[in-house]
Amino acid sequence: MVSLAQLRDANLSGLAPAATAYDTLAANFGKHVQNMQHEVLKHVFNANWVGNAAGAANASLQRTGSRLDAAHTEMSAVSGLLREASESFLLAQSKLQMALQEAQKLGLTVADDGTVSWPAPSKAETNDPGYNIPEQAKALANRISGAVAEAGNADQKIAGLLNSLTERARNGTGLETDKAAADLKAVTQQGVDLMAAGFPPAGASPTEVNSWWKGLTSGEQQRLIEAHPDLLGMRDGIPAVARNEANQLNLANLISKYQQKSNLTEDEKQKLDGFIAISKKLEERRGKQPPVFLIGVSEEGQGRGILSYGNPDTAKNVSAYVPGLGTTLSAVGGKDADRALNVWNAAAAADPNAEVASMVWLGYDPPPGLEKLAQGDPRPLEVMDTDRAAKGGAAYDRFMAGLRATHDGPPAHLVALAHSYGSTTVGLGAQMTGGTGADDIILVGSPGTGATKASQLNVDPGHVWVGDAENDPVSHLPPATRVANDVALFPALGPLGDEVYKMYSPDNQLWFGQDPASKEFGANRFAVPDGAPLSFDSHSHYMDEPKKDPAPDDAAVSVNNIGQIVAGKYDHVTRQGQR
Known about the structure:
There is one protein chain. 51% of the residues lie in helices and 9% in strands. The protein has 579 residues and is an alpha/beta fold. It has 2 domains: 4-198, Ferritin; 297-572, Rossmann fold. The longest helix is centred in the N-terminal third of the chain and has 54 residues, at 52-105. The relative contact order is 0.06.
């Protein structure tokens, strides 16, 4: 096993030159092999020499040629393995050195066994709510042990391969072409696995992931994209361009995987439909402006998909839209992709001089649509609680932190945009430690966020925005404590609107807490059309296609206002009175 001291003090400068020397040796030996094949063998075989002696000589020469070719292959394997050793050990050593330097800056002591200690806190530090040395020490200890373990893992695998190659050289089996080819394949694949072993642990922050990624060479990055697209594509902290390339590869792999499955379940069919819909959307948008980036795709849960119109790493104004109840993976390549494009168009019109990125983020499992109840599926009833929203909120916060970590140049104007149950998801995420990291939060058609005040969402309340159609039944759902089991109350909400809402929901309380459109909540309310009564349509038109000068009752009023907020043009937002 590799110790901390060994990794810290190791002089690895000789590994890369050794690999280069073996490259040179293999290249020169390869020229000899070519000379053997093109000069010696060619002349002998074309000499019209016949007879027993000629047959024996030809067979011997062919055998020698094959053995030389195998020797060349074995040399290439050694060369590749030495290069992998250099890259893997240097990467692990770099991680260790970074962690040790951070520990030194914080005044921490790191023992040779990796134990991290620190001086007893002063009285002032004890009373300081920002004092978090123990947490920092624990995080650094994990990084240190991870780097040492990574080096130990690489050392064990590399040593095993080198011993195998050495043994083949001793016993002569390395001169057999099939075994030499297998050795080269093993080394090549092992090299990729060694790089993959250096992935930051699952709990690493997006900033740590981004730092690790930047520490790789462009060649190492490309090899990982091609070999492990499934591990990179959904990793927050990896830049958008790399995620897009990895996810497009993984999307093709997932489509192939599910198409080859027999007897797909309904959930699997739904995922396959979603993968195909995303693939079609990418093809449809190919070569068009704005460019589309596939920021995420996976088979986790009900399926994951993240599409971005524009590059979020270079855009000045960035929004990430979270859909709600009944959203399936197909919607990421369908109506929700269209909504994200409408937001892009509205924001670009609001500020034509600023680069925009507008995303649809399905990085969680919204409750399935209510139509599933008729099929005997009880999962739609989960819309009545916040379990899915809480898990989604944590994932969304991490995604937004990743956008911050990968952005080039000055920080972007980052906007969290959420609809329906998605607003509960974003609202709960915003109340977690650190919040969404957004500059503005936009909630439309919201049944509540779990918060009683906009100030609880970890942003200035002046940057919390609410769009709420008066005839949207979802934004009038009374609290569960008032409704109890009398679901017959719900149909009455449409025609009577606010009057029924006030009757059953005093103090502006909704299913998931304070009405975000109320005075008590304290957010900005922007104008949206009232929508048609007695219909759920008014819940679905907040992000309809924008227009230059929509009439007051036109659904485009809503997305136009959203575009102004995303562009940071707050003075151009049409306001509406709070409830």
